[in-house]
Amino acid sequence: MSVMLECKSLSVRFDGLAALSDVTFRVQEGDLFGVIGPNGAGKTTLFNVISGTLRPTSGEVYFQGRRISGLAPGRICRLGIAGTFQPVRPFASLSVFENVLVGACFGRDRRGASKDSERHAHEALRFVGLESKADRIAQDLTPAEKKRLEIARALATDPQVILLDEVLSGLTQVETTEILALVRRIQDKGITAMLIEHVMRVVMELCGTVLVLHHGARLAQGTPQEVMNNPEVIEAYLG
Q: Distance between the two ends of the chain, CA-based, in angstroms?
């Protein structure tokens, strides 16, 4: 199995404060890679660096062996990395279909609207179970449906890596079960996934590999069981 994504000595500083400090790890192709840690540990900052919305102070990100740190977010998306936002950020006045079409138009190896982009948008809506809501205005969706819309917009870019930032937060137990099933189906499609999540049951159930961040630094990495049994993780995170 090949390395899909690699981060080397990533550091991010804001006015001298370290949001990330010398973080290094690899994500294998096809893995569901969990990122956990207390609030303020640097999880979303890490995702923002990978997606290109934030430039690292130092260190590098490699995607399939190619250095991508410093590239514009749109360029990184077209190479094959897409993600969701927490909190969700739909284009509120556009329809559900139009929201997903935006992703499809600027996805991997595509530029601008076309019949191919429309097909990708419809396929993504069908995959997440929102095809019947295609003509609805995005702001009228339920919170759970907006989560699905975020995922559909990312999937419409035809990603090889998808970054899922707390896609389960604020959901009911039934909604959580449904989104978990959707995440498994994403992995079944051969898409490598990185997941930020606070619920340890979910991490244990879903993820093959877990990275633990604490105060912006890598505290531990391994299988969920290895991480759960790590004394430093128990002290810093599980308490």
A: 35
- Put the strands of the sheet holding 58-63 in their side by side order: 17-28, 3-14, 58-63, 66-67
Q: Please state whether the peptide bond connecting residue 90 to the residue before it is cis, i.e. omega within 30 degrees of 0.
A: no
Q: What is the dihedral of CA 237, 169, 68, 70, to 10 degrees?
A: -90
Q: Tens of pLDDT along 114-166?
A: 778 899 999 999 999 999 999 999 999 999 999 999 999 999 999 999 999 99
Strand order in the sheet with 161-165: 81-83, 161-165, 192-196, 32-36, 209-214, 217-222
Angle at 196 between CA 119 and CA 172, to 5 degrees: 80
Query: Which domain covers residue 211, as residue numbers?
Result: 1-80+161-239
Is there a contact between 5 and 61 (Cβ–Cβ < 8 Å)? Answer: yes
Pair of tokens at residue 228: 């759960």
pTM (whole model) above 0.90: yes
Same domain, 36 and 51: yes
Encode 70-80: b = buried (16+ Cβ within 10 Å), e = exposed: ebebeebbbbb
- CA distances to 17, 55, 137, 191 from 13, rounded to whole Å, are 5, 10, 39, 31
How many domains does the chain contain in total? 2
